[in-house]
């Protein structure tokens, strides 16, 4: 990501209590380039979030005043920006816990500048794609799939909308039960239906949830896409 002279730098919230790690991550992220605000605790991070907005969070998993994932609750009633966790812990259980909490990825310390830059650029590009307008319905795609018959499209969409609330309930119940097989089975059927009726925005959210079925942010994007379709 290389902003031009007139482009504002992306704003990054770095939450890290260790001075050495914090200095490295701050300097490395600033060289992206990015405007980096450093907080040494959850309390400092929350004050920063009250004062300004950020395009990306980089959060230590273990902080003096609590676990890093509790910071994600700060946007529980709104749209959270992408967040990356960083930790010296290498246990798979720690990684799974952080991903399930809603972090997009988990970076293990120590890490190099190239690895950090690649992770930051990936999430900043993802943010741009997510914010781009995507129509709820792609009429041309639906007509192609159904032989060009508008009446057929209308009738199938009516059935699709009738079935969608129940599908969402089953998917969310499977997520709550950590039932990946159940999630994927429901999403497989829903993906096919989206293709037939031209539900373009929902199809993209379904593919995102298929890739990360237990991640909170993927479920939030799916839920928002369902709401767009249902109106």
Can you walk through the features of this model?
There is one protein chain. α7 runs antiparallel to α8 (200-211) and α8 runs antiparallel to α9 (216-230). 56% of the residues lie in helices and 12% in strands. Mean pLDDT is 85; it is low at 1-7 and 128-133. The protein is built from nine helices and seven strands, in the order βαβαββββαβαααααα. It has a five-stranded parallel beta sheet with strand order 2-1-3-6-7, with helices on both faces. A two-stranded antiparallel ribbon has the order 4-5. It has helices at residues 19-30, 42-51, 92-101, 113-131, 139-145, 150-176, 180-197, 200-211, 216-230; strands at 11-15, 35-39, 56-60, 62-63, 66-67, 83-87, 105-108. With 231 residues, the chain is of the alpha/beta class. It starts with 10 loop residues before the first strand and ends with a helix.
Mean pLDDT: 85
SSE sequence, one letter per element: EHEHEEEEHEHHHHHH
Low-confidence runs of at least 5 consecutive residues = 1-7, 128-133
Number of helices: 9
Number of strands: 7
- Spatial arrangement of strands, main beta sheet: 2-1-3-6-7
Helix content: 55-70%
Strand content: 5-15%
- How far is it from the N-terminal to the C-terminal residue, by CA? 35 Å
Q: What structural class should be given to the helix and strand makeup?
A: alpha/beta
Which shape, going by the Cα principal axes? elongated
Using only C-alpha atoms, the radius of gyration works out to: 20 Å
Reported for the largest beta sheet, the result is: 5 strands, parallel
């Amino acid at each position: 990501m290389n902003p031009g002279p007139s482009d504002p730098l992306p704003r990054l919230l770095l939450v890290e209590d260790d001075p050495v790690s914090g200095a490295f991550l701050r300097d490395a992220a600033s060289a992206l380039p990015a405007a980096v605000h450093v907080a040494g605790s959850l309390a400092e991070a929350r004050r920063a979030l009250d004062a300004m907005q950020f395009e990306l969070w980089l959060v230590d998993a273990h902080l003096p005043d609590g676990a890093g994932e509790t910071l994600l609750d700060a946007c529980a009633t709104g749209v959270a920006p992408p967040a990356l966790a960083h930790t010296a812990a290498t246990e798979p259980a720690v990684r799974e816990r952080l991903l399930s909490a809603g972090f997009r990825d988990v970076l293990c310390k120590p890490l190099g500048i190239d690895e950090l830059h690649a992770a930051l650029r990936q999430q900043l590009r993802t943010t741009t794609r997510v914010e781009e307008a995507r129509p709820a319905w792609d009429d041309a795609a639906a007509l192609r799939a159904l032989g060009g018959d508008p009446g057929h499209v209308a009738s199938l969409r009516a059935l699709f909308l009738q079935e969608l609330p129940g599908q969402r309930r089953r998917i969310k119940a499977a997520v709550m039960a950590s039932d990946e097989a159940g999630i994927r089975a429901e999403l497989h059927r829903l993906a096919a239906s989206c293709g037939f009726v031209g539900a373009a925005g929902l199809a993209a959210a379904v593919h995102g949830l298929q890739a990360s079925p237990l991640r909170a942010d993927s479920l939030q994007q799916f839920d928002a896409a369902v709401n767009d379709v249902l109106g």
